[in-house]
Write a structure and sequence with these properties.
347 residues
């Protein structure tokens, strides 16, 4: 339904290679692009615009300009005067869904001025090429001022009149002197914006332990809190080195399959339940969500684990409802037997 990557690359080439060709293929798939809307006379006039590092914002197409995915447009800046330049990433009815998912305030939309002229594109391109050298010089200035902060990225406004400096810091930083130094050195308006460590990883990018590009730098935009409970429900060992990503926080992918595990665990008995056998009392040591099995061991012999189906465990617990709760034991990864002989307390 959507334009092919080859069409996307050709379009980039015609735009004088303003951005890397592969960046266009990171747009969301517009699966309604070839479907004519029955409400064409009142076409949705909000457009999603992409800026540097997949930063996306919504703008009002008040002039009803005919825009397609990949067009470079000149827009009203978020703050201050001048203009900014970005690329159209999504149009039409799908923008409604994006706005609904992100709960954006529709009263704050800025305007799209026009499709960018070649002069505006060349100015934008020249300042994009200066961002790396500006970043290195800004880091030197911050270091000379002994500020406990890390400047991780810089983004120029489309007209080059303003630059946004993204930084991370553990504590509050007084950067008033830094702003004066940067303004005198670069002769532009300065905006300092603090971001979290997850946002820093998204801007810098990298390769994850899975061998793929980081989710946060490609498609993941809304960061949800991740706790060690996400790993425990999935029966993962709490190894911080393996569970943390490049941002030194717990990996976002720990939440991807969490809901499926939580639904599956609902069919399992309480993990703290005890069962009574002829040889003594046993308690749960481990569960296998996919095979619907639980591993038990005797309290007096925790080195031997026994694998039992969940259905069988439920039958056993029905007969042991009168049993009092007992203390927990530590786990030992030794398996010797696969079945138990149970004592019927109803006799």
């Amino acid at each position: 339904m959507n334009k092919s990557c080859s069409d996307c690359l050709n379009k980039c080439a015609k735009k004088e290679n303003i951005l890397k060709k592969k960046s266009c293929c990171k747009f969301a798939l517009d699966w309604l692009s070839n479907i004519q809307s029955p409400f064409e006379y009142q076409k949705y006039d909000i457009v999603e615009i992409q800026f540097k590092k997949n930063r996306k914002e919504f703008f009002l197409n008040q002039e009803k300009i005919s825009l397609d995915q990949g067009d470079i447009v000149t827009v009203e800046p978020k703050y201050g005067k001048g203009y900014d330049v970005g690329m159209v990433s999504l149009t039409g009815e799908l923008v409604k869904l994006q706005i609904r998912n992100q709960t954006v305030n529709s009263k704050t939309f800025k305007k799209i001025y026009r499709k960018s002229t070649y002069k505006e594109i060349n100015i934008w391109k020249s300042f994009r090429n200066k961002e790396l050298t500006t970043l290195l010089e800004a880091k030197k200035i911050a270091k000379n001022l002994n500020l406990s902060m890390k400047i991780c990225d810089i983004e120029y406004q489309g007209d080059g009149e303003k630059a946004t400096f993204y930084y991370t810091a553990e504590n509050r930083v007084d950067f008033r002197k830094l702003i004066k130094e940067l303004a005198l050195h670069f002769h532009i308006r300065i905006e300092m914006r603090q971001i979290g460590y997850r946002q820093e990883a998204a801007k810098i990018g990298g390769i994850g332990s899975c061998g793929r590009e980081l989710c946060c730098s490609t498609w993941l935009k809304n960061f949800k809190s991740v706790t060690t409970n996400s790993a425990r429900y999935q029966q993962l060992s709490i190894n911080i080195q393996k569970l943390t990503g490049q941002c030194s926080k717990l990996k976002c992918c720990l939440n991807y399959e969490l809901d499926a595990y939580l639904d599956a665990v609902k069919d399992f008995p309480d993990f703290n339940s005890k069962i009574y056998t002829k040889k003594g009392i046993a308690q749960c040591m481990k569960i296998d969500v996919f095979k619907q099995e639980m591993w038990f061991s005797y309290i007096k012999n925790p080195n031997t684990w026994f694998r039992i189906k969940v259905k069988k465990i439920k039958e056993i617990l029905e007969k042991n409802k009168i049993a009092p709760p007992l203390e927990e034991l530590s786990t030992v990864n030794t398996i010797q037997k696969t079945e138990l002989t149970f004592k019927d307390l109803s006799i």
